[in-house]
Amino acid sequence: MSAATRPAPAVPAGLAPPSEGRISPRAGLRHIGALVRRNVLQIRQDPESMFDVLLMPVVFTLLFVYVFGGAISGKGNQQEYVNYLVPGLMAMMGMNIAMAVGTGINDDFRKGVMDRFRTLPIARSSVLVAKIVVEAGRMLIAIAILLAVGFALGLQIGTSVLGLLGAVGLSLLFGTSLMWIFMLLGLTMKTAQSVQGMAMLVLMPLQFGSSIFTPTESMPGWLEAFTDVNPLSNLADAARNLINGGPVAGPVGMTLAWAAAITLVTAPLAISRFRRKT
After folding, report:
1. Residue 105 predicted with pLDDT over 80
2. Measured distance CA(214)–CA(81) in Å, rounded
3. Contact 277, 114 (CB under 8 A)
4. CB 271 within 8 A of CB 125
5. Inter-CA distances, 222 with 163, 209, 218, 219, Å
6. Of 67, 95, 72, which Cα lies nearest the Cα of 233?
7. How many C-alpha atoms does 50 have within 13 Å on its Cβ side?
8. Closest CA to 102 of 276, 229, 266
């Protein structure tokens, strides 16, 4: 098919070419909204892409409570371990779902989706922001399912509903910041498999070298020192104290500082890399 007869790429609703000049903030928001709708429709056409969100919270909670809970907290003390584990898993949910952003954007380039966006007069950052908005929604669903399973197993709120909402919001904020890291990986590495492999090398030490699953006092000194600076430990401790009670200023402050630093460093790099690729 010649270039003259080749059909033009389909333009999603809301992405019509603007007038000449720089793209206005209102047009940018409209483009983000249209791309969010496109990503949601893509999930509707492929509901299997939601299996990780729907099943991962259930599997991890049941696995750790009934397989490891007795060994960690003592036989018959699963109730106590539920209150320890579930807030920690909120931190892990965000990191695992953030990994999907990197593989997803890498796959979009491989399938030629980004070639269509290249022809549209839209802000390049709107493509990335739309992906983050949709993945943040997926993360919120995963946390809601995790809490539902936790309440079914006896999770109790030791503070207030506001404390619970604060833990959810903090987990969502930190998970969103992590998406920029994995998005940068997806834009840098050649295949989705290599993105996933590299992400696992990052995920495993951070998850298991933290206070998500077990208190750190029993760990060797060198590993305990690592958990003290591990951002997942800060998030897990912050969520745990917001739900169960305890000092929150330190861990919440450290989590916010980590989220801000990660976003300020990796977001511009990801956007710059995306512009060069498109």
Report:
1. yes
2. 9
3. yes
4. yes
5. 32, 11, 11, 8
6. 95
7. 18
8. 266
